[in-house]
From TrEMBL:
UniProt keyword list: Cell membrane, Glycoprotein, Leucine-rich repeat, Membrane, Repeat, Signal, Transmembrane, Transmembrane helix
Gene3D superfamilies registered for this protein in UniProt: Ribonuclease Inhibitor
GO CC terms of this entry: endomembrane system; plasma membrane
UniProt cross-references to InterPro entries, sorted A to Z: Leu-rich_rpt, Leu-rich_rpt_typical-subtyp, LRR_dom_sf, RLP_Defense_Trigger
Name listed for the protein in its UniProt record: Receptor-like protein 15
Compartments (UniProt record): Cell membrane; Endomembrane system
Membrane-topology descriptor: Single-pass membrane protein
Gene name as annotated: RLP15_26
UniProt KW Cytoplasm keyword: no
SUPFAM superfamilies: L domain-like
Species this protein is from: Quercus suber (Cork oak)
Length: 543
């Protein structure tokens, strides 16, 4: 509970009790008597029950109200006909609250708030149509966050004047229809635009190329179609994060006009065509073009980053890339080239010293495993199943001291199974099936931990965030204090999956489930002899 002695602080203008463990109800708190408040932040406590904005009825000086909840037990009611606000807010943050629980209506009192600069009403279970009236005659509004509500219908901006919006997040709602043709001219100062996870459709308007200040754009998980406007990839020079994934875009996005320097580019699950080799890409953090119809070879300059740049993640899987694997990829953290038409030998210059995940499943790669790639203490995943590799497993595989997932299935490996595999102390899943291994199962297999020594917090379960000051927008209060409303950075997740036989069925396992999986598959080989008794006893405890 808030201490009752706060009632005595009638001249208090700044109250910030965020990130504590205050609990109980606010309905009987001393807030109503603190009529000199200009700034109040009650975020991240354990308050519950009902809080009515009518407690602010006599607060004529209020400029900033922040309620960011993390327990979802606080009900906030702003609709009360018995009061009219005397204040003019600059900042209103009501996030992860049960806002206007009975109606789900957008706070109507904002209609008369003409000095607003920041409105964040995300994760608050609101419904109805987009409150276009919020943007009318509010030329100072810079940040609007309506993320994760249940808004429906079309999204339109006022057509009779320009907006000063710098930050707009409408993601994870139920908006539909097409974007208005002049959207880029209505919000020319926009820096962050996230309308992902809706049902928007149709072509992107060409005016999106007029957003010259745009730094982050997320249109993923919609029903957009057609080609990407040339202006977006040619004129938006400030753009650093671009996500167009999970739509129906088509055409060649990588033309000679592509002129972006990006931290993250996510184009997966579309119908893009063409080659990568048209123009050198300038992507310094993450590149995902998986599940498209891209063709041609993978150019040497696919990784173009300085040593001070973030770790690079590249996913070109499920396309029709052909030719050999370029050595330049070795500076990546994660390499996923699965399900393409790549052929030839693995280049000996592919030094995997910094690589944690190498996924090459379902190509036409041949030859033996180069010893040079088996000297990586960083490698956690080596998946080269369903290729045409030959030869035996080199003893140098012991150099992969942190390996947790090894899949050599569906190749033409032969010879005896190397005893050096027994020294991979962190291995959790080992699949050597569908090859031509011969001889007996090494007795030392009973010494393998099969997941018991796996690294804590394995990357399968973690998202890799590209955070940047551009995703946090400071607002300077009247008391010269800074606070931040965090933008949702566009995550670049490592997607690792493995097909493994369990209970006589091929099942696909991916991400967090791999943390608790352990398994050994030696089926469909030419092995002879007995199963080592120690291993037989151990297998009954494996998942």
């Amino acid at each position: 509970m808030l201490p009752p002695c706060l009632n005595n602080l009638t001249s208090l203008s700044y109250l910030d009790i965020s990130w504590n463990r205050f609990s109980g109800s606010l309905s009987s708190s001393p807030i109503a008597s603190l009529t000199s408040l200009e700034y109040i932040d009650l975020s991240y406590n354990l308050f519950e029950g009902l809080f009515s904005f009518s407690l602010f009825a006599n607060h004529s000086k209020l400029k900033v109200i922040q309620f960011l909840s993390d327990n979802n037990k606080l009900d906030i009611e702003t609709e009360n006909h018995s009061w009219d606000p005397l204040f003019q807010l600059k900042v209103l943050v009501l996030s992860n609250c049960n806002l206007n629980k009975l109606t789900g209506n957008f706070p109507k009192f904002l209609l008369d708030q003409h000095e607003l600069e920041v409105v964040d009403i995300s994760h608050s279970k609101l419904n109805g149509s987009f409150p276009i009236w919020l943007l009318e005659n509010k030329t100072g509004l810079q940040q609007l966050n309506l993320r994760s509500n249940s808004f429906t219908g079309e999204f339109h901006l006022p057509s009779d004047h320009y907006m000063n919006l710098r930050w707009l997040d409408l993601s994870d709602n139920h908006f539909d229809g097409k974007l208005q043709g002049n959207i880029g001219k209505r919000i020319p100062k926009i820096e962050y635009l996230n309308i992902s996870q809706n049902q928007f459709e149709g072509n992107l308007p060409s005016s999106i190329g007029d957003m010259s200040n745009l730094q982050a754009l997320d249109l993923s998980f919609n029903n957009f179609s057609g080609e990407v406007p040339m202006g977006l990839v040619a004129n938006c020079a400030s753009l650093r994060v671009l996500s167009l994934s999970n739509n129906n875009f088509q055409g060649e996005i990588f033309s000679k006009h592509f002129n972006l320097l990006l931290l993250s580019l996510k184009l997966q699950n579309n119908n893009f065509t063409g080659a990568l080799s048209v123009v050198p890409l300038k992507v310094y953090g993450g590149l995902n073009i998986s599940n498209n119809h891209m063709t041609g070879t993978i150019p040497q300059w696919i990784v173009n980053r300085s040593t001070s740049s973030p770790k690079f993640f590249v996913d070109l899987s499920s396309n029709s890339f052909e030719g050999q694997i370029p050595c330049g990829l070795a500076s990546s953290d994660t390499i996923n080239l699965s399900h393409n038409l790549l052929s030839g030998l693995l280049p000996s210059c592919l030094n995997l010293q910094d690589v944690r995940h190498l996924l090459l499943e379902g190509n036409k790669l041949t030859g033996s495993l180069p010893k040079a790639i088996l000297n990586s203490s960083s490698l956690m995943t080596l998946d080269i199943r369903d290729n045409r590799f030959t030869g035996s497993i080199p003893d140098e595989i012991v150099g992969l001291s942190n390996l947790q997932l090894l899949s050599l299935s569906g190749n033409h490996f032969s010879g005896v199974i190397s005893k050096q595999l027994c020294r991979l102390k962190r291995i959790g899943i080992m699949d050597l099936s569908n090859n031509s291994f011969s001889g007996s199962i090494p007795y030392c297999f009973n010494n393998i931990s099969f997941g018991k020594l796996a690294t804590s917090g394995f990357v399968y379960t973690q998202g890799v965030f590209f955070s940047s000051p551009m995703f946090s927008f400071p607002y300077k209060s009247l008391l010269n204090r800074d606070f931040l409303i965090e933008g949702s950075s566009l995550d670049f997740y490592v997607q690792v999956e493995i097909e493994f036989v369990t209970k006589n069925r091929f099942n696909l396992y991916k991400n967090s489930i791999l943390d608790i999986m352990s398994g050994l598959d030696l089926s469909f080989n030419n092995l002879i002899g007995e199963i080592p008794p120690e291993l037989d006893n151990y297998l009954q405890f494996m998942h």
